[in-house]
UniProtKB/TrEMBL annotation:
It comes from Pandoraea norimbergensis. Its main location: membrane. Keywords: Cell membrane, Membrane, Transmembrane, Transmembrane helix. The chain crosses the membrane at residues 27-46, 52-71, 78-95, 101-117, 124-142, 162-187, 194-213, 219-240, 252-273. This is Urea transporter. Belongs to the urea transporter family. It is found in: Cell membrane. It is a multi-pass membrane protein. InterPro entries: Ammonium/urea_transptr, Urea_transporter.
Length: 303
């Protein structure tokens, strides 16, 4: 039966809205509008200003990708907008809203979409590289932009295993433990095995911090970053079909990068965000080969 021409605009709009919400899920390597909508709901519970700026950034990124006529399927999977959505969340969570921050966020959204498109064109995994780049640029421009910080968010408590679930939520600046647990559950709805392996790597990282913190103070000082970057490294390498040993190595390498970058950037007051995850994942993706998928999921998106 032929599709009615009157329904075509509604189908087009529904497909574009799919990409808008998928931007949130792609932060965790998931090309799903439904999972993205659930993650947005968790964000609304945790920090409404961050959720709203993330939503605004996602809308802006989707419009820019549409104007630039970027590939439709990748656009609707959120591949060009997830870095923008994460940037919007970070702005809402870390900075006080004003006209200057809104204008600068718009510039950053444009930059992330263009950077993601260029990396995709060269078949390079963007990961969260564009997000890290625009956040570093924002920190460098602070004296001229006058961006004002919000009250610091709660950190994850390394004293209990709940640190692992808190770290899952902290990827999108969700601090409360119960919402971190809910975030992990939402991710497991899409790909339980890869998410469980990433959680196992997070547990190993937490045990390493607990065992070595007394003898290595720098490790304890970077515990929050290690938790976030270690989980993302393990999850990302799993999505790219690397073996469990490589995923665990990625989490450990990301933790090591956290300690090094913390020592270098900490005295300058510069956060490293998810740069350690990117460095660890890029390194291990370059030196390892992806075999047959370990998890019964669709092929990995080109990130």
């Amino acid at each position: 039966m032929a599709e009615s021409p009157a329904l075509a605009p509604y189908r087009w709009l529904a497909a574009e809205l799919h990409g808008l919400t998928a931007n949130f899920a792609q932060i965790y390597f998931i090309p799903s509008a439904g999972i993205g909508l659930l993650l947005l709901a968790v964000l609304m519970l945790a920090d409404r200003p961050a959720a709203l700026t993330g939503l605004a950034a996602s809308v802006g990124a989707s419009l820019i990708a549409l104007v630039l006529r970027l590939p439709r399927d990748a656009r609707r999977q959120g591949l060009f907008g997830y870095n923008a959505a994460l940037t919007g969340i970070a702005f809402g969570a870390l900075l006080q809203p004003d006209l200057t921050s809104a204008v600068w966020l718009s510039v950053c959204v444009c930059l992330t979409v263009i950077a993601s498109a260029e990396l995709s064109r060269h078949r390079l995994p963007a990961l969260t590289g564009p997000f890290v780049a625009v956040m570093a640029l924002s920190w460098a421009m602070q004296p001229w932009l006058g961006l004002l910080p919000r009250t610091a968010a709660l950190a994850c408590d390394t004293g209990t295993p709940g640190f692992v679930f808190c770290s899952v939520g902290q990827v999108v600046f969700v601090a409360p433990l119960v919402l971190g647990l809910l975030t992990w559950y939402v991710l497991a709805l899409w790909n339980a095995r890869a998410t469980v392996w990433a959680l196992a790597a997070g547990v190993a990282v937490w045990l390493g911090i607990a065992l070595l913190a007394q003898h290595w103070p720098a490790l304890a000082g970077q515990a929050g970053g290690i938790g976030v970057n270690g989980f993302l490294a393990a999850l990302g390498l799993g999505v790219f079909h690397r073996r469990p040993g490589v995923r665990l190595a990625g989490a450990a390498l990301a933790g090591l990068f956290c300690v090094v970058l913390g020592a270098l950037l900490g005295p300058l007051g510069w956060p490293y965000f998810t740069l350690p995850f990117n460095l660890a994942a890029w390194a291990l993706l370059a030196v390892t080969q992806g075999g047959q998928p370990v998890d019964p999921t669709p092929p990995a998106p080109q990130r």
